[in-house]
Design brief:
Blueprint (H helix, E strand, L loop, with lengths): L2 H4 L3 H44 L5 H6 L10 H14 L2 H4 L4 E7 L2 E11 L10 E10 L5
Helix pairs in contact: 2-4
Length: 143
């Protein structure tokens, strides 16, 4: 057997291995891109919701001048305003199983959103979905 006969077919194995690596990298990049885009859209949704939440400031304080430099946010109104905002833009149609939370940190309204994402590709052994989150906060400066 000559050396040439002993090496016959090794290029085929190398090409198959190369295409497997390229395919796996493509799957990872596409799935990571889908998760990133969902994160960005949830951040945008949370931004709008946070702005809606700060509409729940207590008007008496704003108009009476009993403030330092920030208005106090009513937590119940903030939640109602966020709920109304999400209903107005039909967020639950775009993000099935959307979960959101509004909490106050000092004078800031912090809105956290999370929604499941079905990954475009799910290789064997990988979960076919994941939970993606987004967060935003807003304050009401009073001058």
């Amino acid at each position: 057997m000559t050396r040439r006969d002993a090496e016959r077919g090794q290029v085929t194995v190398m090409i198959i291995g190369f295409f497997l690596v390229v395919g796996l990298l493509t799957v990872v990049v596409v799935d990571a891109s889908a998760a990133y885009l969902r994160n960005q859209s949830l951040n945008s949704l949370a931004d709008g919701a946070a702005l809606a939440a700060v509409d729940g400031i207590e008007g008496e304080q704003v108009y009476s001048g009993d403030l330092d430099d920030r208005a106090e946010i009513d937590p119940e109104l903030a939640e109602q305003y966020v709920e109304q905002y999400l209903d107005d833009i039909d967020a639950r149609d775009d993000y099935p199983a959307l979960v959101w939370d509004v909490h106050l940190v000092g004078e800031r309204a912090v809105v956290e959103m999370s929604a499941p994402l079905t990954l475009p590709f799910s290789p064997p052994g990988w979960d076919d979905s994941t939970i993606v989150t987004g967060e935003a906060s807003a304050v009401v400066p009073v001058t």
